[in-house]
């Protein structure tokens, strides 16, 4: 039966189309009697009948099976590449059941916070610390999402603006990775600043006032913010606005070697006084050697003032 016969013997094209579909149905039934699915015949390399124009096997992608469309009717066996199941990719918002397979990276802001906490402990929380910047930092990938990070300062120095630390990644006390971190930091706390020019010699406390400064920019160790003592000497002149540092000061000598002094010995409620001679120079609060001029016995005493030494038992 051919299409010319169909169209020549029927008045309406619809009737001819119906007869053509019927012929196609009979061909499919004949093919089904072989017991094989049309798609399986293609896979096995069997030749489909020439009357079969096209066939589509609409298997669902969720099943992992192949979706075949517009099968080739040329009689050539199907190739392996055409039968390979499509690669499935997880959705962007899908979550794995094991969080350890989805690790994150440690960011710069997280490292800064850990460093500032460690530096506050190092400075005993005196004043205010701040990380100015991290040097050549790149985000640090976490080996596992359940890993924890710790910071250890490496030889911290309160006289340098630059420091280094060791970032350690652990899981259940097992070390996973280490990274060296370089940073620049600042430390502000109260210091003594000269209100005006100050000459060398006996310190004049009223000439200084307290101000918050970044002490890491100061050359030397600033004097602690405790009240200034008048029993100190400046070893060099200071300019207005200059920070008072410890190396600029020395104790004022109030007891000179060879000078006569009074000595007191305390024993419970008993106090005994005697005359003595200083064997070395001493400032207030220092312990010096003294000698009884009669017995020549040497004792040690704490300098109370320029005239008195309290003998230590």
Secondary structure elements and pairings:
Elements: H1 3-8, H2 13-32, H3 38-44, H4 80-83, E1 105-106, H5 108-122, E2 128-135, E3 140-141, E4 148-154, E5 162-171, E6 174-194, E7 201-202, E8 208-214, E9 232-234, E10 249-251, E11 253-255, E12 260-267, E13 270-278, E14 282-283, E15 287-291, E16 298-303, E17 308-311
Which terms would index this structure?
4 domains; five-stranded mixed barrel; alpha+beta; five-stranded antiparallel sheet; Type Iii Antifreeze Protein Isoform Hplc 12; 17 strands; disordered N terminus; single chain; 5 helices; 313 residues
Tell me about this structure.
By secondary structure, this protein is an alpha+beta fold. It has 4 domains: 3-83, no CATH class; 101-188, no CATH class; 189-251, Type Iii Antifreeze Protein Isoform Hplc 12 (Alpha-Beta Complex), CATH 3.90.1210; 253-311, SH3 type barrels (Roll), CATH 2.30.30. It contains 5 helices and 17 strands. The chain has helices at 3-8, 13-32, 38-44, 80-83, 108-122, and strands at 105-106, 128-135, 140-141, 148-154, 162-171, 174-194, 201-202, 208-214, 232-234, 249-251, 253-255, 260-267, 270-278, 282-283, 287-291, 298-303, 308-311. The strands form 5 sheets. Strands 2, 4, 5, 6 and 8 form a 5-stranded antiparallel sheet that branches. Strands 12-13-15-16-17 form a 5-stranded mixed β-barrel. Mean pLDDT is 75; it is low at 1-10 and 34-100.
């Amino acid at each position: 039966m051919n299409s010319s016969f169909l169209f020549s013997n029927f008045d309406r094209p619809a009737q001819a189309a119906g007869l053509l579909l019927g012929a196609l149905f009979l061909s499919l039934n004949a093919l089904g009697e072989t017991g094989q699915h049309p798609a399986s015949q293609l896979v096995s390399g069997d030749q489909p009948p020439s009357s079969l124009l096209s066939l589509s096997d609409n298997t669902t992608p969720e099943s992992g099976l192949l979706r075949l469309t517009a099968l080739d009717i040329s009689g050539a066996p199907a190739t392996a590449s055409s039968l390979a199941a499509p690669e499935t990719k997880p959705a962007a918002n899908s979550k794995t059941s094991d969080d350890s397979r989805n690790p994150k990276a440690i960011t710069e802001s997280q490292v800064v916070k850990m460093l500032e906490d460690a530096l506050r402990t190092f400075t005993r929380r005196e004043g205010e610390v701040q990380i100015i910047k991290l040097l050549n930092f790149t985000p640090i990938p976490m080996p596992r999402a359940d890993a924890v990070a710790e910071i250890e300062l490496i030889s911290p120095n309160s006289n340098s603006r630059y420091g280094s630390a060791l970032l350690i990644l652990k899981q259940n006390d097992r070390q996973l990775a280490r990274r060296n971190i370089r940073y620049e930091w600042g430390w502000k706390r109260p210091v003594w600043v000269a209100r005006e020019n100050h000459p060398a010699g006996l310190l004049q406390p009223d000439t200084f006032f307290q101000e918050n400064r970044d002490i890491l920019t100061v050359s030397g160790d600033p004097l602690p913010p405790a009240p200034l003592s008048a029993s100190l000497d400046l070893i060099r002149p200071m300019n207005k606005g200059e920070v008072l540092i410890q190396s600029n000061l020395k104790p004022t000598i109030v007891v000179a070697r060879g000078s006569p002094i009074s000595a007191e010995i305390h024993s419970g409620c008993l106090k005994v006084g005697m005359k003595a001679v200083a064997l070395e120079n001493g400032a207030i609060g220092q312990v010096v050697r003294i000698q009884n001029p009669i017995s020549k016995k040497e004792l040690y005493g704490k300098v109370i003032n320029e005239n008195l030494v309290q003998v230590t038992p």
